[in-house]
Structure formats: structure tokens, C-alpha cells
């Protein structure tokens, strides 16, 4: 029996009784950490009352599987009962929490860019990298990308719309990377990095909608309070 299967089996037997820590709870899923005899593991479980949630976790498990050879992607152990995504827990803080104490920013962002390029070559664009919670500063300053809930997958078949969508999603990943590295209004970019940056009208429209909406619904404030409650 492979180690991966042993971990998934252990989670299966101990899910209800083992001590656990809730790491996050979004619209689609709940993420919980477990200490297993094989190391620390996270389990992402879709909310039962949301039909699309389950499909989204299954899709995400396929993406993690596809990216397993790439440094900076957590190890995928398996999908339990067709609905629980079991992953390696990456020790470290999110980029949101650890940003100020990054040891070597240039090396960190160079590694993240290498992960992005390798991921795109495998036909996956992340699509949600502006969110600093989706990047973990792992051991040896290695960035890890998590949360492929809204990732875009390149289709093998001829699909013109998918081709355009994938191209935009890749560009959004690079734009997010530039903004994470240089700030929201990027200045002082190297020529190489400037060549990666290409703001999209799609992002502008999304911002026109998002910013007033967040203000109207106090979203940032509510989220901050919720996250404080989870720590
Ligand atoms: N492999 C992992 N290692 C460490 N922490 C993780 C891992 N996966 C998720 N988390 C933690 O759980 C939180 C929620 O997980 P995520 O996949 O982003 O779910 P959501 O779709 O709800 O945002 C993350 O912000 C992170 O703190
Ligand atoms: Mg997330």
C-alpha cells in the first residue's frame, strides 16, 4: 500500500474523532488540519448544502494531481469518498501574514514565477493569486500556491473560447505576480518583469464592480474579523 493511500485511509478512520484545527471556511468548502502519524495534513471538504461545491473540490483534486511534479505545489494524497481533498499541510504563514518578514524577496518571487510558468505549461492558470492567502511562504523561503478553486484549465480539444480564456487567466496570474512583487501600482520594474505585465480590461471591469461592492457590504472588515476569530 502506498504512503498516500495510508494517509487517506487514516483520515477516513479518524476524521470524526481526531483533534483538528479549522484553517478556513469559504463559500465552497471548509479546510481543516490534522496531525497524522504520517505528518500534518489538510482536508478540504465542500459544503454539503452547495451542490457545485463538491464538483469544485473534485476538479481541484484533478488540478493538484496534474501539478504534482512542480516545486511549490503541495503534495496531493488523494480524494476521499469522492469529496474530501487530502493534501500535505505546508508549514508556514500566508504571504499576507509573512510579507513584511520575507528573507529574500527577489529569490522568493523568482521561485514563484518559475512555479507559475511550469503550471501554465501543464495547462493550468490559477486565476486568484491577488489574494495573498493563496500563497504560503514555505520552508526555505519556497512559495507554495494553494486554492485552485477558480483555476482555468486548458482544453486539449480545439476550443477557441477556452483558448482565449486560458490566455487571459495566464495573464492575470502574471499581473498578480507583478503586483505582489511591486505593489498595487507597480513602479521601478526590471525590463524583464515589465514585459510580463499587461493589465487587462477584464480586470479593470472586475475592479469597478468589486471595489464599490466591497465598500457597500463591508466585505474587507467582515473578512478581517472572521480571520481573527479563526486564529
Ligand atoms: N496545503 C495547505 N497547507 C497549509 N495551509 C493550507 C493548505 N491548503 C489550505 N490551507 C489553509 O486553508 C485556507 C483555506 O484554503 P483554500 O484552499 O484557500 O480554501 P478556500 O477556497 O476556502 O479559500 C488557506 O488560506 C490556508 O490558510
Ligand atoms: Mg483561498
CATH class of the largest domain: Mainly Alpha
The strand count comes to 10
What small molecules accompany the polymer chains? Answer: adenosine-5'-diphosphate, magnesium ion
Mean pLDDT comes to: 92
Q: Whole-number radius of gyration?
A: 18 Å
How many domains? The number is: 2
Q: Low-confidence stretches at least 5 residues in length (pLDDT < 50)?
A: none
The number of helical runs is 8
| CATH homologous superfamily heading of the largest domain | Transferase(Phosphotransferase) domain 1
Give me the CATH fold name of the largest domain.
Transferase(Phosphotransferase), domain 1
In what order do the strands lie side by side in the largest sheet? Answer: 1-2-3-5-4
Overall, the morphology is globular
Features:
231 residues, alpha+beta, Phosphorylase Kinase, domain 1, Transferase(Phosphotransferase), domain 1, 2 domains, 5-stranded antiparallel beta sheet, 3-stranded antiparallel beta sheet, 19% strand, binds adenosine-5'-diphosphate, binds magnesium ion
Task: Summarize the entry for a quick read.
This protein is of the alpha+beta class and 231 residues long.
Amino acid at each position: 500500500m502506498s504512503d498516500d493511500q495510508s494517509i487517506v485511509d487514516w483520515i477516513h478512520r479518524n476524521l470524526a474523532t481526531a483533534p483538528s484545527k479549522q484553517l478556513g471556511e469559504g463559500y465552497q468548502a471548509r479546510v481543516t488540519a490534522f496531525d497524522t502519524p504520517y505528518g500534518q495534513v489538510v482536508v478540504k471538504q465542500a459544503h454539503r448544502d452547495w451542490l457545485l461545491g463538491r464538483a469544485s473540490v473534485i476538479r481541484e483534486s484533478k488540478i493538484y494531481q496534474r501539478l504534482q511534479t512542480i516545486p511549490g505545489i503541495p503534495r496531493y494524497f488523494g480524494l476521499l469518498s469522492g469529496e474530501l481533498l487530502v493534501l500535505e499541510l505546508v508549514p508556514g504563514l500566508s504571504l499576507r501574514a509573512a510579507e513584511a518578514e520575507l528573507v529574500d524577496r527577489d529569490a522568493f518571487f523568482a521561485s514563484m514565477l518559475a512555479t507559475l510558468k511550469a503550471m501554465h505549461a501543464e495547462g493550468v492558470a490559477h486565476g486568484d493569486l491577488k489574494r495573498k492567502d493563496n500563497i504560503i511562504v514555505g520552508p526555505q523561503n519556497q512559495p507554495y500556491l494553494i486554492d485552485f478553486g477558480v483555476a482555468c484549465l486548458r482544453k486539449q480539444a480545439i476550443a477557441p473560447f477556452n483558448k482565449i480564456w486560458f490566455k487571459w487567466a495566464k495573464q492575470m496570474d502574471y499581473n498578480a505576480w507583478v503586483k505582489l512583487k511591486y505593489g498595487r501600482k507597480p513602479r521601478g520594474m526590471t525590463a524583464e518583469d515589465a514585459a510580463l505585465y499587461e493589465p487587462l480590461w477584464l480586470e479593470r471591469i472586475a475592479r469597478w464592480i468589486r471595489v464599490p461592492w466591497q465598500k457597500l457590504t463591508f466585505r474587507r472588515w467582515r473578512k478581517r474579523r472572521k480571520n481573527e476569530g479563526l486564529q
